[in-house]
Write a structure and sequence with these properties.
The complex is a heterodimer of chains A (68) and B (472).
Chain A: H1 3-19, H2 26-45
Chain B: H1 12-21, H2 26-44, E1 47-50, H3 52-67, E2 79-83, H4 110-117, E3 121-126, H5 160-167, E4 173-178, H6 184-190, E5 193-196, E6 216-221, H7 224-234, E7 264-267, H8 269-272, H9 280-295, E8 299-302, H10 308-333, H11 340-346, H12 354-377, E9 380-384, H13 410-414, E10 418-425, E11 431-438, H14 443-457, H15 466-471
Parallel strand pairs in B: 2-3, 2-4, 7-8, 7-9
Antiparallel strand pairs in B: 1-3, 4-6, 5-6, 5-10, 9-11, 10-11
Helix pairs in contact in B: 2-3, 5-6, 10-12
The chains are: A mainly alpha (68), B alpha/beta (472).
Chain lengths: 68, 472
Protein backbone atom coordinates (compact mmCIF):
# COMPACT_ATOMS: atom_id res chain seq x y z
CA UNK A 1 0.00 0.00 0.00
CA UNK A 2 1.43 3.37 -1.01
CA UNK A 3 1.92 6.21 1.46
CA UNK A 4 -1.02 8.07 -0.11
CA UNK A 5 -3.24 5.00 0.12
CA UNK A 6 -2.26 4.49 3.74
CA UNK A 7 -3.04 8.12 4.51
CA UNK A 8 -6.42 7.80 2.80
CA UNK A 9 -7.16 4.64 4.77
CA UNK A 10 -6.27 6.39 8.00
CA UNK A 11 -8.57 9.30 7.13
CA UNK A 12 -11.37 6.85 6.37
CA UNK A 13 -10.79 5.08 9.68
CA UNK A 14 -10.76 8.41 11.54
CA UNK A 15 -14.05 9.44 9.92
CA UNK A 16 -15.76 6.13 10.66
CA UNK A 17 -14.63 6.01 14.28
CA UNK A 18 -15.56 9.67 14.79
CA UNK A 19 -19.03 8.85 13.48
CA UNK A 20 -19.56 6.38 16.34
CA UNK A 21 -17.90 8.66 18.88
CA UNK A 22 -14.85 6.49 19.47
CA UNK A 23 -11.63 8.07 20.64
CA UNK A 24 -8.77 5.83 19.62
CA UNK A 25 -5.75 5.95 21.94
CA UNK A 26 -2.93 7.51 19.98
CA UNK A 27 -0.33 4.92 20.93
CA UNK A 28 -2.53 2.14 19.53
CA UNK A 29 -3.37 3.81 16.26
CA UNK A 30 -0.45 2.69 14.08
CA UNK A 31 -1.09 -0.98 14.83
CA UNK A 32 -4.77 -0.60 14.00
CA UNK A 33 -4.03 1.03 10.67
CA UNK A 34 -1.61 -1.80 9.91
CA UNK A 35 -4.41 -4.30 10.58
CA UNK A 36 -6.78 -2.19 8.46
CA UNK A 37 -4.32 -2.44 5.56
CA UNK A 38 -4.32 -6.23 5.87
CA UNK A 39 -8.09 -6.27 6.11
CA UNK A 40 -8.46 -4.07 3.04
CA UNK A 41 -6.30 -6.52 1.07
CA UNK A 42 -8.63 -9.29 2.23
CA UNK A 43 -11.82 -7.46 1.26
CA UNK A 44 -10.39 -7.21 -2.25
CA UNK A 45 -9.75 -10.97 -2.28
CA UNK A 46 -13.31 -11.89 -1.28
CA UNK A 47 -14.61 -10.01 -4.35
CA UNK A 48 -14.65 -12.62 -7.09
CA UNK A 49 -16.48 -12.68 -10.40
CA UNK A 50 -19.84 -14.27 -9.64
CA UNK A 51 -23.42 -14.02 -10.83
CA UNK A 52 -26.27 -12.41 -8.96
CA UNK A 53 -27.52 -15.91 -8.22
CA UNK A 54 -24.43 -16.70 -6.10
CA UNK A 55 -25.98 -16.55 -2.66
CA UNK A 56 -24.12 -16.28 0.63
CA UNK A 57 -23.69 -19.10 3.09
CA UNK A 58 -26.13 -18.88 5.98
CA UNK A 59 -24.10 -20.10 7.99
CA UNK A 60 -22.98 -22.59 5.37
CA UNK A 61 -24.91 -24.96 3.21
CA UNK A 62 -25.31 -28.33 4.88
CA UNK A 63 -26.81 -29.98 1.82
CA UNK A 64 -23.75 -30.01 -0.44
CA UNK A 65 -21.60 -30.99 2.52
CA UNK A 66 -23.53 -34.15 3.28
CA UNK A 67 -22.56 -37.60 2.10
CA UNK A 68 -23.55 -38.38 -1.51
CA UNK B 1 -0.40 -49.01 32.37
CA UNK B 2 1.16 -50.35 35.54
CA UNK B 3 0.54 -49.80 39.22
CA UNK B 4 3.49 -47.37 39.12
CA UNK B 5 2.06 -45.25 36.29
CA UNK B 6 1.83 -41.67 37.57
CA UNK B 7 -1.81 -40.70 38.00
CA UNK B 8 -1.54 -37.90 35.44
CA UNK B 9 -0.40 -40.43 32.86
CA UNK B 10 -3.52 -42.57 33.26
CA UNK B 11 -5.84 -42.15 30.33
CA UNK B 12 -9.42 -41.18 31.09
CA UNK B 13 -10.46 -44.76 30.35
CA UNK B 14 -7.73 -46.20 32.57
CA UNK B 15 -8.54 -43.85 35.45
CA UNK B 16 -12.23 -44.58 34.97
CA UNK B 17 -11.61 -48.32 35.17
CA UNK B 18 -9.68 -47.91 38.42
CA UNK B 19 -12.37 -45.65 39.86
CA UNK B 20 -15.01 -48.26 39.10
CA UNK B 21 -12.86 -51.10 40.39
CA UNK B 22 -12.34 -49.26 43.66
CA UNK B 23 -8.54 -49.16 43.30
CA UNK B 24 -8.47 -45.38 42.89
CA UNK B 25 -10.62 -42.58 44.25
CA UNK B 26 -11.63 -39.42 42.47
CA UNK B 27 -10.41 -37.57 45.55
CA UNK B 28 -6.90 -38.99 45.17
CA UNK B 29 -6.91 -38.28 41.44
CA UNK B 30 -8.07 -34.73 42.07
CA UNK B 31 -5.59 -34.09 44.88
CA UNK B 32 -2.81 -35.33 42.60
CA UNK B 33 -3.94 -32.84 39.93
CA UNK B 34 -4.14 -30.01 42.46
CA UNK B 35 -0.64 -30.82 43.72
CA UNK B 36 0.67 -30.85 40.17
CA UNK B 37 -0.99 -27.49 39.46
CA UNK B 38 0.56 -26.03 42.61
CA UNK B 39 3.99 -27.29 41.57
CA UNK B 40 3.95 -26.49 37.85
CA UNK B 41 1.56 -23.65 37.21
CA UNK B 42 3.83 -20.92 38.58
CA UNK B 43 6.01 -21.69 35.56
CA UNK B 44 3.19 -21.93 33.01
CA UNK B 45 0.36 -19.57 34.08
CA UNK B 46 -2.17 -21.95 32.58
CA UNK B 47 -4.78 -21.38 35.30
CA UNK B 48 -6.46 -18.05 35.98
CA UNK B 49 -8.36 -19.61 38.86
CA UNK B 50 -8.00 -22.95 40.65
CA UNK B 51 -11.33 -24.02 42.12
CA UNK B 52 -9.84 -26.25 44.79
CA UNK B 53 -12.86 -26.44 47.08
CA UNK B 54 -15.23 -27.08 44.20
CA UNK B 55 -12.88 -29.75 42.80
CA UNK B 56 -12.59 -31.63 46.08
CA UNK B 57 -16.36 -31.44 46.60
CA UNK B 58 -16.98 -32.72 43.06
CA UNK B 59 -14.51 -35.54 43.68
CA UNK B 60 -16.02 -36.54 47.02
CA UNK B 61 -19.46 -36.62 45.41
CA UNK B 62 -18.14 -38.76 42.55
CA UNK B 63 -16.60 -41.19 45.03
CA UNK B 64 -19.89 -41.51 46.91
CA UNK B 65 -21.83 -42.03 43.70
CA UNK B 66 -19.44 -44.57 42.22
CA UNK B 67 -19.36 -46.47 45.51
CA UNK B 68 -23.16 -46.55 45.38
CA UNK B 69 -23.09 -47.95 41.86
CA UNK B 70 -24.18 -44.71 40.19
CA UNK B 71 -22.29 -44.28 36.94
CA UNK B 72 -22.68 -40.95 35.15
CA UNK B 73 -20.48 -41.80 32.20
CA UNK B 74 -16.88 -41.66 31.01
CA UNK B 75 -15.88 -38.46 32.81
CA UNK B 76 -17.39 -39.37 36.17
CA UNK B 77 -14.71 -38.52 38.74
CA UNK B 78 -12.28 -37.23 36.08
CA UNK B 79 -10.67 -33.80 36.59
CA UNK B 80 -11.00 -31.26 33.80
CA UNK B 81 -10.72 -27.49 33.34
CA UNK B 82 -12.43 -24.84 31.23
CA UNK B 83 -11.10 -21.98 29.15
CA UNK B 84 -12.15 -18.83 30.97
CA UNK B 85 -14.71 -17.87 28.36
CA UNK B 86 -16.98 -20.75 29.55
CA UNK B 87 -19.54 -19.39 31.97
CA UNK B 88 -19.59 -21.19 35.32
CA UNK B 89 -22.26 -20.65 37.96
CA UNK B 90 -20.84 -18.80 40.96
CA UNK B 91 -17.31 -18.89 39.55
CA UNK B 92 -15.63 -15.83 38.05
CA UNK B 93 -15.49 -15.90 34.26
CA UNK B 94 -13.21 -13.13 33.01
CA UNK B 95 -12.40 -13.86 29.35
CA UNK B 96 -8.88 -12.91 30.57
CA UNK B 97 -10.01 -9.28 30.44
CA UNK B 98 -10.26 -6.28 32.73
CA UNK B 99 -13.73 -5.71 31.27
CA UNK B 100 -15.09 -8.82 32.99
CA UNK B 101 -12.74 -8.99 35.94
CA UNK B 102 -15.61 -9.21 38.45
CA UNK B 103 -18.11 -11.12 36.33
CA UNK B 104 -19.60 -14.10 38.15
CA UNK B 105 -22.27 -15.86 36.06
CA UNK B 106 -25.43 -17.08 37.70
CA UNK B 107 -25.61 -20.23 35.61
CA UNK B 108 -23.36 -22.72 33.86
CA UNK B 109 -23.20 -22.67 30.10
CA UNK B 110 -24.40 -25.82 28.41
CA UNK B 111 -21.02 -27.55 28.18
CA UNK B 112 -20.11 -26.73 31.78
CA UNK B 113 -23.51 -28.05 32.85
CA UNK B 114 -23.09 -31.24 30.84
CA UNK B 115 -19.68 -31.86 32.38
CA UNK B 116 -21.08 -31.28 35.86
CA UNK B 117 -24.04 -33.54 35.18
CA UNK B 118 -21.61 -36.17 33.92
CA UNK B 119 -19.80 -36.16 37.25
CA UNK B 120 -16.61 -34.51 35.98
CA UNK B 121 -14.44 -32.65 38.49
CA UNK B 122 -13.86 -28.96 37.77
CA UNK B 123 -10.28 -27.93 38.61
CA UNK B 124 -10.53 -24.35 37.47
CA UNK B 125 -10.56 -21.76 34.71
CA UNK B 126 -7.83 -21.47 32.14
CA UNK B 127 -5.89 -18.69 30.47
CA UNK B 128 -6.95 -17.51 27.03
CA UNK B 129 -6.20 -14.65 24.74
CA UNK B 130 -8.36 -11.72 25.83
CA UNK B 131 -11.85 -12.47 24.49
CA UNK B 132 -10.19 -15.29 22.52
CA UNK B 133 -8.50 -12.78 20.19
CA UNK B 134 -6.01 -10.56 22.04
CA UNK B 135 -2.78 -12.30 22.91
CA UNK B 136 -0.26 -13.29 23.92
CA UNK B 137 -0.36 -10.14 26.02
CA UNK B 138 1.44 -8.83 29.07
CA UNK B 139 -0.89 -5.86 29.60
CA UNK B 140 -3.86 -7.87 30.91
CA UNK B 141 -4.92 -8.65 34.49
CA UNK B 142 -3.28 -12.08 34.20
CA UNK B 143 -0.06 -13.15 32.48
CA UNK B 144 -0.16 -15.24 29.31
CA UNK B 145 0.20 -19.01 29.50
CA UNK B 146 3.54 -20.52 28.55
CA UNK B 147 4.55 -23.57 26.55
CA UNK B 148 5.36 -26.60 28.73
CA UNK B 149 8.00 -27.79 26.25
CA UNK B 150 9.87 -24.54 26.78
CA UNK B 151 8.27 -21.84 28.93
CA UNK B 152 10.01 -19.09 26.96
CA UNK B 153 7.81 -20.04 24.03
CA UNK B 154 4.23 -19.39 22.96
CA UNK B 155 1.80 -22.24 23.72
CA UNK B 156 -0.55 -21.20 20.91
CA UNK B 157 -3.84 -19.44 21.31
CA UNK B 158 -6.38 -18.58 22.09
CA UNK B 159 -6.96 -21.75 24.16
CA UNK B 160 -3.48 -21.24 25.53
CA UNK B 161 -4.10 -22.34 29.10
CA UNK B 162 -5.98 -25.40 27.89
CA UNK B 163 -3.01 -26.47 25.77
CA UNK B 164 -0.44 -25.80 28.49
CA UNK B 165 -2.47 -27.51 31.23
CA UNK B 166 -3.00 -30.69 29.21
CA UNK B 167 0.55 -30.95 27.85
CA UNK B 168 2.04 -30.50 31.32
CA UNK B 169 -0.17 -33.20 32.80
CA UNK B 170 -1.99 -30.86 35.15
CA UNK B 171 -5.22 -32.08 33.64
CA UNK B 172 -6.00 -34.80 31.15
CA UNK B 173 -8.59 -32.84 29.20
CA UNK B 174 -9.61 -29.19 28.97
CA UNK B 175 -12.27 -27.43 26.97
CA UNK B 176 -11.28 -24.80 24.45
CA UNK B 177 -12.87 -22.85 21.65
CA UNK B 178 -11.83 -22.49 18.02
CA UNK B 179 -12.77 -19.55 15.78
CA UNK B 180 -9.76 -19.59 13.46
CA UNK B 181 -7.68 -22.37 15.00
CA UNK B 182 -7.76 -21.70 18.74
CA UNK B 183 -8.08 -25.37 19.68
CA UNK B 184 -5.87 -26.82 16.96
CA UNK B 185 -3.09 -24.22 17.23
CA UNK B 186 -2.42 -24.78 20.94
CA UNK B 187 -2.69 -28.53 20.32
CA UNK B 188 0.02 -28.26 17.66
CA UNK B 189 2.33 -26.05 19.71
CA UNK B 190 1.86 -28.07 22.89
CA UNK B 191 2.07 -31.52 21.26
CA UNK B 192 -1.39 -32.71 22.20
CA UNK B 193 -4.72 -33.60 20.57
CA UNK B 194 -7.39 -31.01 19.84
CA UNK B 195 -10.77 -31.52 18.21
CA UNK B 196 -12.75 -28.75 16.57
CA UNK B 197 -16.03 -30.58 16.06
CA UNK B 198 -18.48 -29.88 13.26
CA UNK B 199 -20.16 -26.48 13.57
CA UNK B 200 -23.33 -27.14 15.54
CA UNK B 201 -22.13 -30.38 17.20
CA UNK B 202 -21.25 -28.87 20.60
CA UNK B 203 -23.34 -26.11 22.13
CA UNK B 204 -21.81 -22.64 22.36
CA UNK B 205 -24.41 -21.39 24.81
CA UNK B 206 -22.73 -19.73 27.76
CA UNK B 207 -19.39 -19.44 25.98
CA UNK B 208 -18.48 -15.82 25.31
CA UNK B 209 -18.69 -15.35 21.53
CA UNK B 210 -15.89 -14.10 19.34
CA UNK B 211 -17.57 -14.72 15.98
CA UNK B 212 -21.03 -16.27 15.96
CA UNK B 213 -20.67 -18.21 12.72
CA UNK B 214 -17.07 -19.33 13.18
CA UNK B 215 -16.98 -20.28 16.88
CA UNK B 216 -16.69 -23.96 17.79
CA UNK B 217 -16.30 -25.55 21.24
CA UNK B 218 -14.24 -28.68 21.69
CA UNK B 219 -11.72 -30.60 23.80
CA UNK B 220 -7.94 -30.43 24.04
CA UNK B 221 -6.69 -33.75 25.36
CA UNK B 222 -3.60 -35.86 25.82
CA UNK B 223 -4.87 -38.63 23.51
CA UNK B 224 -7.44 -39.16 20.80
CA UNK B 225 -9.35 -41.55 23.06
CA UNK B 226 -9.52 -38.91 25.80
CA UNK B 227 -10.95 -36.44 23.28
CA UNK B 228 -13.51 -38.99 22.07
CA UNK B 229 -14.69 -39.77 25.59
CA UNK B 230 -15.04 -36.07 26.34
CA UNK B 231 -17.07 -35.54 23.19
CA UNK B 232 -19.47 -38.21 24.42
CA UNK B 233 -20.29 -35.95 27.37
CA UNK B 234 -20.33 -32.51 25.76
CA UNK B 235 -21.90 -33.15 22.32
CA UNK B 236 -25.56 -32.91 21.50
CA UNK B 237 -28.36 -30.70 20.33
CA UNK B 238 -29.07 -27.62 22.44
CA UNK B 239 -32.27 -25.78 21.57
CA UNK B 240 -30.88 -22.74 23.41
CA UNK B 241 -27.98 -22.41 20.95
CA UNK B 242 -29.43 -21.13 17.67
CA UNK B 243 -26.65 -22.81 15.68
CA UNK B 244 -26.90 -26.17 17.42
CA UNK B 245 -27.61 -29.03 15.03
CA UNK B 246 -30.42 -31.47 15.77
CA UNK B 247 -28.48 -34.55 14.70
CA UNK B 248 -27.94 -37.86 16.53
CA UNK B 249 -24.90 -38.14 18.79
CA UNK B 250 -22.77 -41.08 17.67
CA UNK B 251 -20.48 -43.27 19.76
CA UNK B 252 -17.32 -41.21 19.30
CA UNK B 253 -15.13 -44.13 20.42
CA UNK B 254 -16.78 -46.73 18.21
CA UNK B 255 -14.18 -46.55 15.45
CA UNK B 256 -11.10 -46.31 17.67
CA UNK B 257 -8.69 -49.20 17.34
CA UNK B 258 -9.55 -49.98 13.74
CA UNK B 259 -6.96 -49.80 11.00
CA UNK B 260 -7.54 -47.59 8.00
CA UNK B 261 -8.29 -50.24 5.38
CA UNK B 262 -10.85 -48.99 2.92
CA UNK B 263 -10.41 -45.31 3.72
CA UNK B 264 -9.44 -42.82 1.02
CA UNK B 265 -7.62 -39.73 2.25
CA UNK B 266 -6.98 -36.49 0.37
CA UNK B 267 -3.57 -34.86 0.84
CA UNK B 268 -3.49 -31.26 -0.43
CA UNK B 269 0.32 -30.95 -0.25
CA UNK B 270 0.50 -27.90 -2.50
CA UNK B 271 -1.96 -26.11 -0.20
CA UNK B 272 0.74 -25.69 2.47
CA UNK B 273 4.10 -27.02 1.33
CA UNK B 274 5.23 -23.98 -0.64
CA UNK B 275 3.64 -21.10 1.26
CA UNK B 276 5.69 -18.39 2.95
CA UNK B 277 6.75 -19.29 6.45
CA UNK B 278 6.20 -23.02 6.30
CA UNK B 279 8.84 -25.03 8.13
CA UNK B 280 10.50 -27.88 6.20
CA UNK B 281 10.22 -29.88 9.42
CA UNK B 282 6.44 -29.48 9.42
CA UNK B 283 6.24 -30.57 5.77
CA UNK B 284 8.51 -33.53 6.41
CA UNK B 285 6.40 -34.49 9.42
CA UNK B 286 3.27 -34.46 7.30
CA UNK B 287 4.93 -36.50 4.55
CA UNK B 288 6.03 -39.10 7.09
CA UNK B 289 2.58 -39.18 8.68
CA UNK B 290 0.89 -39.70 5.34
CA UNK B 291 3.22 -42.63 4.68
CA UNK B 292 2.23 -44.06 8.06
CA UNK B 293 -1.44 -43.63 7.21
CA UNK B 294 -0.87 -45.51 3.95
CA UNK B 295 0.85 -48.33 5.85
CA UNK B 296 -2.22 -48.48 8.09
CA UNK B 297 -4.30 -49.25 5.01
CA UNK B 298 -5.52 -45.89 3.74
CA UNK B 299 -5.36 -44.89 0.09
CA UNK B 300 -3.75 -41.46 -0.28
CA UNK B 301 -4.60 -39.11 -3.16
CA UNK B 302 -2.74 -35.86 -3.59
CA UNK B 303 -5.33 -33.19 -4.36
CA UNK B 304 -5.52 -29.42 -4.76
CA UNK B 305 -7.55 -26.91 -2.76
CA UNK B 306 -8.17 -23.23 -3.51
CA UNK B 307 -5.46 -20.83 -2.41
CA UNK B 308 -5.27 -20.62 1.38
CA UNK B 309 -5.37 -16.82 1.14
CA UNK B 310 -8.96 -17.04 -0.11
CA UNK B 311 -10.03 -19.07 2.92
CA UNK B 312 -8.08 -16.75 5.20
CA UNK B 313 -9.54 -13.57 3.72
CA UNK B 314 -13.04 -15.01 3.91
CA UNK B 315 -12.62 -16.06 7.53
CA UNK B 316 -10.86 -12.90 8.71
CA UNK B 317 -13.44 -10.57 7.18
CA UNK B 318 -16.30 -12.50 8.80
CA UNK B 319 -14.47 -12.83 12.13
CA UNK B 320 -13.54 -9.16 12.29
CA UNK B 321 -17.06 -8.04 11.37
CA UNK B 322 -18.72 -10.29 13.93
CA UNK B 323 -16.23 -9.56 16.73
CA UNK B 324 -16.54 -5.82 16.12
CA UNK B 325 -20.33 -6.05 16.23
CA UNK B 326 -20.14 -7.84 19.59
CA UNK B 327 -17.64 -5.41 21.12
CA UNK B 328 -18.54 -2.15 19.36
CA UNK B 329 -19.99 -0.41 22.39
CA UNK B 330 -17.12 -1.30 24.72
CA UNK B 331 -14.52 -0.52 22.07
CA UNK B 332 -16.07 2.92 21.82
CA UNK B 333 -16.52 3.65 25.52
CA UNK B 334 -13.82 1.62 27.31
CA UNK B 335 -10.87 1.36 24.91
CA UNK B 336 -8.23 1.25 27.61
CA UNK B 337 -9.92 -1.62 29.43
CA UNK B 338 -8.92 -3.80 26.47
CA UNK B 339 -5.37 -4.99 26.10
CA UNK B 340 -3.46 -3.64 23.16
CA UNK B 341 -3.75 -6.71 20.91
CA UNK B 342 -7.50 -7.31 21.38
CA UNK B 343 -8.25 -3.65 20.74
CA UNK B 344 -6.01 -3.45 17.69
CA UNK B 345 -7.40 -6.65 16.15
CA UNK B 346 -11.07 -5.71 16.64
CA UNK B 347 -11.12 -1.98 15.87
CA UNK B 348 -10.46 -2.52 12.13
CA UNK B 349 -14.00 -3.85 12.01
CA UNK B 350 -14.99 -0.18 11.87
CA UNK B 351 -13.87 0.04 8.23
CA UNK B 352 -15.79 -3.00 6.97
CA UNK B 353 -18.85 -2.35 4.86
CA UNK B 354 -21.99 -4.44 4.59
CA UNK B 355 -20.92 -5.39 1.08
CA UNK B 356 -17.53 -6.60 2.36
CA UNK B 357 -19.28 -8.99 4.72
CA UNK B 358 -21.77 -10.24 2.13
CA UNK B 359 -19.00 -10.86 -0.40
CA UNK B 360 -17.15 -12.87 2.24
CA UNK B 361 -20.29 -14.90 2.95
CA UNK B 362 -20.76 -15.58 -0.77
CA UNK B 363 -17.17 -16.78 -0.96
CA UNK B 364 -17.78 -18.89 2.11
CA UNK B 365 -20.44 -20.86 0.36
CA UNK B 366 -18.18 -21.43 -2.67
CA UNK B 367 -15.28 -22.61 -0.51
CA UNK B 368 -17.53 -24.89 1.55
CA UNK B 369 -18.78 -26.44 -1.70
CA UNK B 370 -15.22 -27.09 -2.92
CA UNK B 371 -14.27 -28.86 0.32
CA UNK B 372 -17.56 -30.79 0.23
CA UNK B 373 -16.78 -32.03 -3.26
CA UNK B 374 -13.39 -33.33 -2.10
CA UNK B 375 -15.15 -35.16 0.72
CA UNK B 376 -17.67 -36.74 -1.66
CA UNK B 377 -14.85 -39.00 -2.87
CA UNK B 378 -12.59 -39.00 0.18
CA UNK B 379 -13.22 -39.92 3.79
CA UNK B 380 -11.00 -37.15 5.12
CA UNK B 381 -8.39 -34.52 4.27
CA UNK B 382 -4.97 -34.58 5.94
CA UNK B 383 -3.25 -31.21 5.95
CA UNK B 384 -1.02 -28.78 7.84
CA UNK B 385 -1.96 -27.28 11.18
CA UNK B 386 0.59 -24.74 12.49
CA UNK B 387 3.08 -24.05 9.70
CA UNK B 388 6.08 -23.92 12.03
CA UNK B 389 6.94 -24.69 15.65
CA UNK B 390 6.06 -22.12 18.31
CA UNK B 391 7.99 -18.87 18.49
CA UNK B 392 9.34 -17.19 21.59
CA UNK B 393 6.88 -15.11 23.58
CA UNK B 394 9.25 -12.15 23.39
CA UNK B 395 9.38 -12.39 19.60
CA UNK B 396 5.89 -10.98 19.12
CA UNK B 397 5.84 -7.45 17.72
CA UNK B 398 4.58 -4.60 19.89
CA UNK B 399 1.56 -4.04 17.65
CA UNK B 400 -1.00 -6.62 16.58
CA UNK B 401 -1.24 -8.00 13.07
CA UNK B 402 -3.94 -10.00 11.30
CA UNK B 403 -1.44 -12.70 10.36
CA UNK B 404 -1.39 -16.03 12.15
CA UNK B 405 1.09 -18.85 11.66
CA UNK B 406 -1.60 -21.51 11.45
CA UNK B 407 -3.39 -23.09 8.50
CA UNK B 408 -6.56 -23.79 10.40
CA UNK B 409 -9.17 -21.16 9.53
CA UNK B 410 -10.35 -22.87 6.31
CA UNK B 411 -12.36 -25.36 8.35
CA UNK B 412 -13.91 -22.69 10.54
CA UNK B 413 -15.08 -21.14 7.29
CA UNK B 414 -16.55 -24.44 6.09
CA UNK B 415 -17.61 -25.87 9.45
CA UNK B 416 -16.05 -29.33 8.91
CA UNK B 417 -14.73 -31.29 11.91
CA UNK B 418 -10.94 -31.12 12.27
CA UNK B 419 -8.67 -33.06 14.62
CA UNK B 420 -5.17 -31.86 15.52
CA UNK B 421 -2.65 -34.61 16.16
CA UNK B 422 1.10 -34.31 16.87
CA UNK B 423 3.55 -35.53 14.25
CA UNK B 424 6.68 -35.23 16.36
CA UNK B 425 9.22 -32.61 17.33
CA UNK B 426 11.38 -30.06 15.60
CA UNK B 427 15.13 -30.06 16.08
CA UNK B 428 14.53 -27.33 18.66
CA UNK B 429 12.52 -29.82 20.72
CA UNK B 430 9.16 -28.17 20.11
CA UNK B 431 6.11 -30.09 18.90
CA UNK B 432 4.80 -30.05 15.33
CA UNK B 433 1.56 -31.52 14.02
CA UNK B 434 -1.13 -31.95 11.39
CA UNK B 435 -4.89 -31.94 11.28
CA UNK B 436 -7.44 -34.34 9.86
CA UNK B 437 -10.61 -32.89 8.38
CA UNK B 438 -13.74 -34.97 7.94
CA UNK B 439 -17.27 -34.84 6.64
CA UNK B 440 -19.85 -32.92 8.64
CA UNK B 441 -20.84 -34.78 11.80
CA UNK B 442 -18.45 -37.62 10.96
CA UNK B 443 -16.15 -37.09 13.93
CA UNK B 444 -15.93 -40.88 14.51
CA UNK B 445 -14.00 -41.34 11.24
CA UNK B 446 -11.72 -38.40 12.00
CA UNK B 447 -11.04 -39.83 15.46
CA UNK B 448 -10.44 -43.31 13.98
CA UNK B 449 -7.77 -41.91 11.65
CA UNK B 450 -6.18 -39.88 14.45
CA UNK B 451 -6.13 -42.82 16.85
CA UNK B 452 -4.63 -45.18 14.30
CA UNK B 453 -1.87 -42.70 13.53
CA UNK B 454 -1.30 -41.98 17.22
CA UNK B 455 -0.80 -45.70 17.88
CA UNK B 456 2.04 -45.98 15.40
CA UNK B 457 3.54 -42.54 16.02
CA UNK B 458 3.65 -42.94 19.82
CA UNK B 459 4.15 -39.23 20.53
CA UNK B 460 1.99 -39.43 23.64
CA UNK B 461 4.75 -41.38 25.36
CA UNK B 462 6.82 -38.20 25.67
CA UNK B 463 6.04 -35.52 28.28
CA UNK B 464 7.66 -32.12 28.88
CA UNK B 465 10.31 -32.38 31.60
CA UNK B 466 8.89 -29.58 33.70
CA UNK B 467 9.95 -31.06 37.00
CA UNK B 468 13.55 -30.67 35.88
CA UNK B 469 12.95 -27.04 34.94
CA UNK B 470 11.33 -26.38 38.32
CA UNK B 471 14.23 -28.05 40.13
CA UNK B 472 16.80 -26.18 38.01
Amino acid sequence: MSTDDRRALEQEFDALTARIGAVVPADRKAGIIGCCEELRRMTALVRQPRSAAAEPANVYSLKPMSRP
Amino acid sequence: MSAQTPLHDLSIAEAGARLRAGTLTATALTQHALDRIAALDPLLNAFLLVTKERALADAARADRELNAGIDKGPLHGIPHALKDIYETAGIRTTCHSQLLIDYVPEADGTVAAKLAAGGAVLLGKLATHEFAIGGPSFDLPFPPARNPWNPDYFPGGSSSGSGAAVASGMVRVAMGSDTGGSIRGPAAYCGIVGLKPTYGRVSRRGVFPLSYTLDHCGPLAWSVEDAALTMQVVAGHDPLDPASAAVPVPDFSAELGRDLAGLRLAYPRSFFATVDGVSPEVVAGLDRAVQDLARLGATIDEIALPDYELFNACGRVILTAEAYAIHEDNLRTRPLDYGRFAYQRMMPGAILSAADLIQALRLRRELADVVARVLETHDAIVTANALAPAIRLDAFPADATMRTPGHTIPFNVTGHPALAVPTGFSTSGLPIGLHIVGRPFDEPTVLRIGAAYETVAQWTARRPQLELKMAG
